[in-house]
């Protein structure tokens, strides 16, 4: 596999300095071998190290190379599926456990930032923006639903109130979550990696896991080395490829694209987002945006099923940005990139065990900044023998994509067409 570097994103261009992390050479022994240095892998490693485990992390490219270093940076609590749908599928008891955990990821991120002094431009406040009365009605019922699970911090906004926090006439209202917010996602991952190393964890970059010998004493192979471990945690998500075939068959990588403007004047930036909250709209194929620490607008949207890289990202995303903020028509785009998230049919994460000693979490289907931090905690809990919260996720049903990977793209493209029409018609 060729050595792989970051895409030319705003995040890579503004990353905090990092140490060299050499490729794995030869054989090492550890308690837990984590495959993948995104938030899932890093959060798992950090919780394990804090609990006395010896941990080796293998990263195919660089820390935060995947979605964790490319995303919109929005701390969006809860899951990509509403808790009442979960409740109908799995029953009240399990839904209660999941509902109780739905805002924990945002708290974990803030604890990490404070405890390890991570410099990643943290700002509080996330807005869900409604484009229609129907979407507003959905937000109202969501608020009631979350209050049932004790999450009472959400504030509904009418058209006048949302206009105070987003400088556009696009929305009929919205909902504000002050436990949401935004971060520089790559710098969060890099800070977490430094925290892992400060506790004695080892991270090897440019070290893809290419084979796993399963069994009582599992071994993970890389091109130039191998790791003998008591446990393996698979955290490769949309970038895992076919290393673990049973995970590939029930999920699909999808691309989503992000652009970043040149730095805006303080006045222009303030006129777009006066309170510096991040925003996502309520469409199924949603737009999301926020300001960076140096007053650029980061705007994301669009989904490419099957994770092929679109040729002209700016041409896809800029019109979406101008629809919300026509006042940016003369502003230059400095960066444009794509990244992959992992879609599951239920849009719920897939969590579980393979045999006695391989564990995984993947597929948060779009919203994963908070969930992946929670996943790390749950994976560490189960390895310490506390399975209740892990099992609340592990017992959610997993569905294979019909027809396997070959048919996944057309299948989901039909789904995307359906949801795009639904968004356009406001139904
Ligand atoms: C463009 C974009 C925007 C997004 N915006 C948001 C947002 O604003 N808010 C939100 O909540 N969510 C967002 N998401 C989703 C969120 O970023 C992801 O859910 C989350 O980062 C997934 O983290 P992860 O650690 O599971 O996977 P990743 O971050 O993808 O990490 C997986 C890592 O595993 C490595 N790897 C894979 N295979 C191997 C192997 N064989 N050996 C060794 N290493 C391997 C990869 O190189 C990669 O570094 C966005 C996603 C994208 C792509």
UniProtKB/TrEMBL annotation:
Transmembrane segment boundaries: none
Signal peptide: none
FAD dependent oxidoreductase domain residues: 31-381
Keyword Oxidoreductase recorded: yes
One Pfam family, short name: DAO
Domain of life: Bacteria
UniProt entry keywords in alphabetical sequence: Oxidoreductase
Gene Ontology CC terms, in alphabetical order: cytoplasm
Molecular function via GO: oxidoreductase activity
Coiled-coil annotated residue ranges, if any: none
PANTHER family: GAMMA-GLUTAMYLPUTRESCINE OXIDOREDUCTASE, SARCOSINE DEHYDROGENASE-RELATED
Full protein name: FAD-binding oxidoreductase
């Amino acid at each position: 596999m060729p050595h792989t570097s970051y895409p030319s994103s705003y995040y890579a261009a503004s990353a905090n300095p990092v140490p060299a992390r050499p490729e794995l050479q030869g054989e090492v022994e550890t308690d837990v071998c984590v495959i993948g240095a995104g938030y899932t892998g890093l959060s798992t490693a950090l919780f394990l190290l804090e609990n006395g485990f010896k941990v080796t992390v293998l990263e195919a490219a660089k820390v935060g190379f995947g979605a964790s270093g490319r995303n919109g940076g929005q701390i969006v609590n809860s899951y990509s599926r509403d808790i009442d749908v979960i409740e109908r599928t799995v029953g009240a008891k399990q839904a209660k456990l999941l509902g109780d955990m739905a805002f924990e990821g945002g708290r974990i991120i803030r604890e990490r930032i404070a405890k390890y002094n991570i410099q990643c431009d943290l700002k509080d406040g996330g807005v869900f923006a409604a484009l229609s009365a129907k979407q507003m009605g959905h937000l109202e019922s969501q608020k009631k639903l979350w209050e049932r699970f004790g999450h009472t911090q959400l504030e509904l906004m009418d058209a006048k109130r949302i206009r105070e926090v987003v400088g556009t006439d696009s929305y009929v209202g919205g909902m504000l979550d002050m436990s949401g917010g935004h971060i520089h996602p790559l710098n969060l991952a890099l800070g977490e990696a430094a925290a892992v190393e400060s506790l004695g964890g080892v991270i090897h970059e440019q070290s893809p896991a290419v084979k796993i010998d399963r069994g009582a004493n599992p071994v993970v192979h890389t091109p130039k080395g191998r790791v003998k471990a008591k446990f393996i945690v698979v955290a490769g998500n949309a970038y895992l490829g076919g290393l673990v075939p049973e995970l590939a068959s029930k999920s699909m990588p999808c691309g989503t694209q992000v652009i970043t403007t040149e730095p805006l004047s303080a006045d222009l930036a303030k006129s777009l987002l006066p309170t510096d909250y991040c925003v996502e709209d309520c469409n199924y194929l949603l737009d999301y945006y926020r300001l960076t620490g140096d007053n650029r607008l980061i705007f994301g949207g669009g989904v490419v099923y099957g994770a092929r890289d679109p040729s002209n990202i700016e041409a896809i995303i800029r019109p979406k940005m101008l629809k919300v903020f026509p006042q940016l028509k003369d502003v230059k785009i400095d960066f444009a990139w794509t990244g992959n998230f992992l879609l599951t049919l239920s849009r719920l994460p897939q969590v579980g065990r393979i045999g006695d000693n391989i564990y995984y979490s993947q597929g948060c289907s779009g919203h994963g900044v908070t969930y992946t931090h929670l996943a790390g905690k749950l994976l560490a809990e189960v390895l310490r023998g506390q399975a209740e919260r892990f099992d609340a996720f592990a017992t959610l049903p997993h569905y294979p994509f019909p027809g396997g990977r070959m048919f996944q793209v057309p299948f989901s493209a039909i789904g995307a067409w359906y949801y795009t029409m639904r968004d356009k018609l406001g139904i």
